[in-house]
Every structure is written in C-alpha cells, then in structure tokens.
Amino acid sequence: MATSNPPRPNRTTFRFALPPTLGDVQVRAAPLQSYLSDALGKPAEVIVPASYETLAKDLLGGKVDAAWAPPFVCARIEAMGVRVLVRGVRGGASTYRAALVCRADANVTKDSLQGTTAAWSDRDSVGGYLLPMAWLREHGQDPAKLFFRQDFVGSYKAALELVAKGAIDVTSIFAAAARAGHPDVTGIDEVWAGASAKFKVLAFTDEAPNDGVAVSMAMTGPMVTELEKAMLALKDSEKGAQVLGDLFHADRFEPAPRMGYRALYRVALASL
To answer: 204, 205, 202: which is closest to 109 by C-alpha?
Structure first.
C-alpha cells in the first residue's frame, strides 16, 4: 500500500490519459479535451500512453492527473492506494464481458481451437485477453498449449484486422453484458465501424466490472471533486454525450464503489 503521495507535476495543464487499445483517438479526443478544459477551468490535454503498463505507471507517478483505465489496471492501482472515481455504464449495466471471435467464413469453432493462432490487444486488457484466458482455463484448455502462436498487437482494431485478412485465426473483443430479452452484442462496430459482419462469435465469457476513471494521488481534493462532477454530468449535454459515445463507449458514468475491482484478481490468477 502506498504511504506517501508522489510529487505534484510541474505543469499548468490537466492531463487525461486514454488506453492504447482504443487505437488512434487523437482526433476524436478533441471534444473531451475541450469539455474538460471548460469544466475544470484550466487547459486540458489528452494523451495515449504506449501500453496499459505505461498508463498505470504514469498515473501512479503523477505524470497524468486522471485516466480512463481498463478494469484490471483499476484493480492493480486500487491496491496501491489510487482511487477509481467513476465507472462506465453501458446498456444499463456496469459490467461487461468478452467475445472470442474468428472470421465469419472460417472453419473454426470453440471446440476446434487446437493449433490455431491468436492476436490479443494487451496483456492487461480484460476484454482483449484476461477474460478469454480465464474462460479457456475454466473449460479445461491451457492457452500456452492450445494456440500455435499468440501475439499482442496493441489495440482491438489491429487484432481484428489481422483476423479479417486471415493472418490470425482468433481474437477477443469487449461485449455488452448479457441481458434477458436483448440480443448479444459485441464491440466490433465501436472500434471498426461496419465490420461486425466480417466476424462470428465463438463464445462469450463471464462478466467483469466496466472500465473506470482513476485519479492520481497528486490531485488535490477540490480538483477531484470537480472532475467527478464533470464526468457524471457528461450525459447532460450534447457535447458530453458525444464524448461518452465516441471515446468511452458508455451511456453515462456512475460513482465507483471503493475497492470495487477486487474480484478481478481471480480473473488475473486464472489467466496465468
């Protein structure tokens, strides 16, 4: 457990980090940058670290003030004293799952994965790696022996593109939580518009808590309060709703329960 705060960054901007698995978001991030600048009363900048590991280190070291972090990163940094402020709500749910997918015309099933190749977004990605690893182990499969090759390619879209062109057999994408009376929906079209018809779902995994916005321990109390208010209010304006849909793939944010990501350590252990 962290016992002291890192030094406050020597800069005048508010720095917000987005995960690399979203792909190239710099153009789409402009509305978020503008929104945060207005809401917080100081210039904001949005950055995309090279990996989840870098994102976590930047947050712990105070190089960024806040970050949109995937669930496993939230679990890891919560244990080190970092607060997760809010979490996303999609389709009325604060949880999500992963879908293991292959090319639509591929002769692959969930029971015929032996000797296939896989591409994952990041080792710390819950939807892009950890949940499918846990699902495979729960079904008696050892991923290290199951796949002929496994690659980490940095983003959901990059992995999907490899599968679409036949260079890789399978990948995993985040998917909406299961809801009675609602069709099963993956996040393919959210990261690659109109591409869902190129793929078929082999299996859906168990569910995990949604991504959250975590804040650096270097942030002052008043700024934390203002950021929480700003994130919760995104749904109340046209500008905010655009940011929610385009970047966060969420309908709204809700306050995150303290230490709400502890259950993900079970997922992490199952993925080893």
So the answer is: 202
